[in-house]
User: Fold these one by one.
Assistant:
Number 1:
Amino acid sequence: GQRIFWVERSNNRIMQSSGFTAASPTVFRSGLNAPQHVEVMQEEGYVIFTSNGGESIKRLDLSDGGNEIFLANNGAFVGYSDIAVNGDEGYVYGTEINGGIEYVDVFTGSTRGFMNLVGVSDNNFMFGIDYASSLGNIFYVDADDPAIYGAVGPLGNTAFPGFPTGPSYEYLEIDGINNLLYYSDGSQILRSDTQGSGVAIIQPNAG
């Protein structure tokens, strides 16, 4: 059925709703170590999350929250700012404040590497990230530019120009059905197309 998943870091658990309204929440998995981000891979049957305050990436079974599998770890002070999943290629992406964007095989964790983001001014202070399956592209925030970039292909071998610089872009999500991008700039939530056109404020004073 339709569910929403979210983390309760202070309670060391991942929660789920019984529908798209977050009504009647129940515990999906408890006993975790400071989970911070969560993504769902519906077809693969996985829940991917960061653990220990964002230091590592792990996997659970979507069916019952069991079978916890370790995928990757970056250690203290170098954790993942955000994660996104690519079910088409079987990757989870993790943005890193100091180290660009890493990709990890969601099935075994054995394939790891960093995307070659040609055309980006630097690879520092990466925050929000999402994968648009309908386009085959990755979108991500480079917070110190500050700009939102798009990368062509699942491994991001070529970056295309960033959106006009904003005050402080943070996190983003893709609406893959309508090819719309939703993102925050520290004080409000905005929407645009995937080329940065048609920007509209949909939630002011959201900081």
Number 2:
Amino acid sequence: VQNLSLGQLFMDKCTDTGFYHCNSHNATGSSVDGYYITDSTPETYTYTGCYFKDITAHHCDNGLNVQRVNDVTIRDYNGYSNTTAGLVLFSTTANNDYPITLNNITCRNNTGNGITATTIAAITANNITLLNNGGIGLALATVIDSIFANLNIQDNTGDGIDLSTVCIDNVFTGGLILNQGGLGIQENATCNRNSFTGIRIDLNTGG
């Protein structure tokens, strides 16, 4: 689909409840988000079961923007050269009842962060590649009880991983963080009980 926000297309077709499936689409050249879906009423989570597979978003605003949606799976996603972030996940309350699964995600050459996740619980992420983004590789704020495995984070302008404002009980395992413009990992004082194992951190400007 050319020059169209597929997310807006979703919104036009959505009912109050239901299962949303997007497979093998390419969003490009839009001044709005390439894919965007949200429940506009906070904490009702009437949109459930979103499934995105084999999609690409480039030269949009945010590549893929998912807000306040219950049970999200994103597989085989490539978000590149967007003017803000490659992937945005947002909610207003971190609630373990609304899980997010990420598998085989690549965000590269975006003007902002590779991935931005705010007020989210129960992310399970595997095979995450974040390269040459103009901001932070993986930017987390108030993210809890989540697992990030097999990370490839290289050549981002900011920190490789930034944990700000109450990121608690998250596990990061396996991979590498190289050549960041900032720190390899930055953890705010309000964050605790986060673990990092099997991650090579090297050649970062800030340490």
Number 3:
Amino acid sequence: LTTVQFDGSIDGDGYTFAFANAPEVLPVTVWGDVRNVYLDTGNIVDLTMNVEGYYLDLDGVTGADLTTLTFNQGQEYNDGGQIWLDIDGAADVSSLETLTVLGAGNVDVDIDAAHVDDDMNALATVSVTAADDATLNMYGYGSEGGSEGFTALQTVEVHAQNGDAWAFLSDVSGAFTLDVTAGSDATVHLIDTGATSATVAAAMDGEAD
């Protein structure tokens, strides 16, 4: 088994779609939408999911062995598209090092490690690119001793090629660089982070604090 293809859409209705005994490196192509799915990657180490439909909606991701996760929206049949991706540190994603999301329309990514037991401290690279609007929210764990979330983070990129870019990072303690570009407006909010540099380039208005 070297690849998996689905000829139509996947509607999870909030249930879990799980892989078991799969290859460690696996590309998956869905010739349709992915809606309301909780994804369990099982023993996969490097997962690439190519979605050719309009919607990619993942309510959560878990996988103890997962180090690299990539989502591509090819849009073979439609113009634009919408990606919603939620990753919660309460799930077992403690090995995840690289997250890449490429959208043909709008992309919304939320990464939540805001509780004391959440472990996303292997995550080093986050890249979000959208043809239209791109949104990234990252929430780490804040304590009286300071921020304690995402300690290995090195690089964060948010690119909205033809639309607005939004980046909100709170209690993200890794020493990371932030690069945000927008074809329209860009908004960046950094709260208690270890950012070493932030570059914001917008064709219209740019706001950073």
